[in-house]
């Protein structure tokens, strides 16, 4: 029928070579060893080992979190789920099904825990109270049914007495306390654009001590932004350099890649000046040559060439005199940018009959969200340690962490364990890797299994771990964490796996949710204390403590009404959450310097005095949050409070 035909047309297909001929085949029928053709716009149907041929540009942002497409050539492994942006090549199928990068991610998602800590505690308390109630009622009914002293005791009076005692001792308010308060907390979070998918996650969020966060799209905008325009030619200002870079594109057509988009959408670009030029020839970006070229005729009729590409490639194209004059300074700047993880794009110009001259260089970076740094500071004030876990390059992760004040102790994936599909998670992760993970400010160039194992190791060390992310590569860690938090702009897999979804895609809502969940749990504890006191008084009354002296025995209806009143009272107490107001930032002691015994230690308290003369205890962060100490270890450490309390 029509529906079946439509479903069949949506099945992924691949160009595969079998029996010496190329043909289309269902991607699910691929087997290791098949030769597959990949072209621009194609989705990669399996993990494919590229063979001899041209390099291809591959967009694997959803898998690894890298902001820009990567160039891959012979011997590289292209992962299932990524997309070919440009180029054509062939390769051999290396892995299919559960053995692919994508399949491992799905297997890890299914291997996580389901029951939260709070649910386990509630179940243990409920079982204990039910056992106690059963023993108490059985003993009372047995004793009273065998006793008759002429005052009405017997089998049926004993059964009536047992019913009163049973109703009074059943912990009926237990679930009401939890469900009512968490449901109201969930509603308040929804008003803050944070959707709670699992009520128990509110308890997990309240107890969170470590927050692991993906970088691209979560801490950053997932959008390359022009950072700086550097000039290497006389009279070349920012506008002139950007105009030349734009002339080395098809500016009248939609941008073909992220770099063209970056240049053509720059604020200081005068697009009207571009149309006064005639493009005579254009060579699009070639991953092998790593540059773009264009030949143009200017408004004055002069013909010139413009080259835009990798800095080292463009510098080699410049004439010898130009290279000798700027080469050392240019190379030093490129090296500095590379160490900081900032990408650069060089622009050169050659007049007709002249030599190539370097004009300038554009630097760009995926910047942090405007509120990210302040959000991390507020999370630290709440006593939560924040760690970055990203699939991006180490230098880029280090620069981002430094800019956000998170520290620059960024580990690599080669220091982390791995896990095979279907393999049980080792119970020794916390013992073997926990200390190293705790000391690190984050990890770079990690795969989904690494994120999963980092979260699991921290949980084995006794931490309550939160995880924020937006991509397919974050899904296993989101599922493994005590509370998984996805941003609303993320992939469907991440959103469906998470416990909390931030619809505004802003990390600052995490801090609001954290504080609100702690307020909700505080209200639950108050309700528990009230219910406990209520039962301590009610159960002896139901057990007949007043009967020997006053001959007062409560009927079953009275016990039922008393327990209903208990439920109503805790619900009314929970409704006080509607008065919740977000907290103001904690006052911190500023300008205070301390000399820590262990520069790398975190989890220690420093004592300082604020302007009002009040002592403030500040949980110290890693020294790497102070960039100036990287060059001068003897410099005094500025207190970077994580959590503060007045004493």
Could you please describe the fold and organization of this structure?
The chain is of the alpha+beta class and 647 residues long. Helices cover 40% and strands 22% of the residues. It has 23 helices and 28 strands. The strands form six sheets. The chain has an eight-stranded mixed sheet, with helices on both faces. It is elongated and about 120 Å long. The chain starts with a helix and ends with a strand. The C terminus is likely disordered.
Gross geometry:
elongated
Number of helices, where a helix is a run of at least 4 consecutive DSSP H or I residues: 23
Return the structural class.
alpha+beta
Order of strands across the widest beta sheet? 10-23-22-21-11-18-20-19
First-residue to last-residue Cα separation: 74 Å
Name the beta content range: 15-25%
Q: Work out the radius of gyration.
A: 33 Å
What is the β-strand count? 28
> How many strands, which pairing sense, and closed or not: the largest β-sheet?
8 strands, mixed
Query: Low-confidence spans: pLDDT under 50, at least 5 residues?
Result: 586-647
């Amino acid at each position: 029928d029509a529906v079946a035909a439509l479903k069949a047309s949506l099945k992924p297909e691949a160009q595969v070579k079998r029996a010496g001929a190329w043909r289309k085949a269902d991607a699910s029928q691929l087997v290791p060893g098949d030769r597959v053709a990949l072209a621009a716009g194609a989705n990669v149907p399996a993990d494919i080992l590229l063979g001899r041929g041209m390099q291809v540009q591959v967009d694997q942002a959803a898998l690894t979190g890298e902001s820009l497409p990567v160039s891959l050539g012979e011997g590289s492994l292209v992962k299932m789920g990524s997309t070919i942006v440009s180029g054509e090549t062939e390769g051999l199928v290396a892995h299919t099904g559960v053995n692919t990068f994508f399949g491992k991610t799905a297997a890890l998602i299914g291997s996580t825990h389901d029951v939260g800590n709070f649910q386990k505690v509630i179940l243990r308390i409920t079982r204990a109270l039910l056992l106690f109630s059963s023993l108490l009622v059985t003993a009372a009914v047995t004793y009273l049914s065998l006793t008759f002293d002429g005052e009405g005791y017997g089998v049926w009076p004993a059964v009536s007495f047992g019913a009163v005692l049973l109703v009074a001792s059943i912990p009926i308010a237990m679930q009401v306390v939890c469900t009512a308060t968490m449901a109201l907390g969930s509603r308040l979070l929804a008003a803050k654009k944070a959707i709670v998918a699992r009520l128990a996650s509110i308890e997990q969020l309240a107890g969170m001590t470590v927050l692991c966060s993906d970088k691209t799209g979560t801490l950053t905008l997932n959008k390359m932004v022009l950072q700086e325009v550097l000039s290497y030619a006389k009279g070349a200002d920012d506008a002139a350099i950007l105009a030349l870079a734009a002339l080395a594109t098809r500016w009248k057509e939609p941008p073909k890649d992220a770099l063209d988009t970056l240049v053509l959408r720059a604020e200081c670009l005068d697009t009207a000046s571009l149309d006064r030029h005639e493009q005579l020839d254009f060579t699009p970006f070639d991953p092998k040559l790593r540059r773009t070229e264009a030949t143009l005729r200017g408004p004055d009729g002069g013909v010139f060439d413009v080259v835009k590409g990798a800095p080292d490639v463009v510098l080699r194209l410049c004439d010898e005199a130009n290279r000798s004059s700027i080469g050392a300074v240019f190379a030093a700047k490129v090296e500095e940018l590379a160490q900081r993880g900032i990408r650069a794009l060089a622009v050169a110009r050659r007049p007709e009959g002249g030599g190539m001259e370097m004009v300038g260089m554009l630097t760009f970076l995926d910047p942090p969200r405007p509120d990210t740094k302040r959000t991390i500071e507020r999370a630290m004030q709440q006593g939560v340690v924040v760690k970055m876990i990203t699939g991006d390059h180490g230098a880029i992760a280090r620069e981002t962490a430094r800019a956000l004040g998170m520290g620059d102790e960024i580990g690599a994936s080669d220091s982390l364990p791995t896990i095979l599909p279907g393999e049980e998670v080792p119970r020794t992760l916390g013992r073997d890797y926990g200390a190293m993970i705790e000391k690190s400010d984050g990890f770079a160039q990690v795969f989904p299994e690494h994120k999963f194992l980092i979260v699991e190791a921290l949980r084995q060390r006794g931490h309550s771990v939160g995880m924020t992310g937006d991509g397919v590569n974050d899904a296993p860690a989101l599922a493994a964490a005590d509370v998984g938090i996805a941003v609303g702009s993320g992939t469907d897999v991440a959103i469906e796996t998470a416990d909390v979804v931030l619809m505004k895609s802003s990390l600052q809502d995490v801090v609001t949710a954290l504080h609100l969940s702690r307020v909700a749990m505080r209200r639950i504890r108050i309700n528990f204390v009230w219910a406990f006191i209520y039962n301590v008084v009610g159960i002896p009354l139901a057990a007949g403590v007043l009967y020997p002296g006053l001959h007062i025995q409560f009927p079953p209806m009275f016990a039922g009404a008393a327990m209903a009143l208990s439920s109503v009272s805790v619900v009314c107490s929970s409704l006080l959450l509607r008065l919740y107001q977000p907290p103001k930032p904690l006052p911190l002691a500023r300008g205070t310097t301390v000399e820590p015994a262990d520069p790398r230690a975190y989890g220690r308290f420093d004592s300082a005095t604020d302007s009002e003369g009040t002592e403030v205890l500040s949980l110290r962060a890693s020294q790497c949050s102070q960039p100036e100490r990287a060059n001068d270890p003897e410099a005094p450490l500025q207190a970077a409070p994580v959590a503060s309390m007045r004493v």
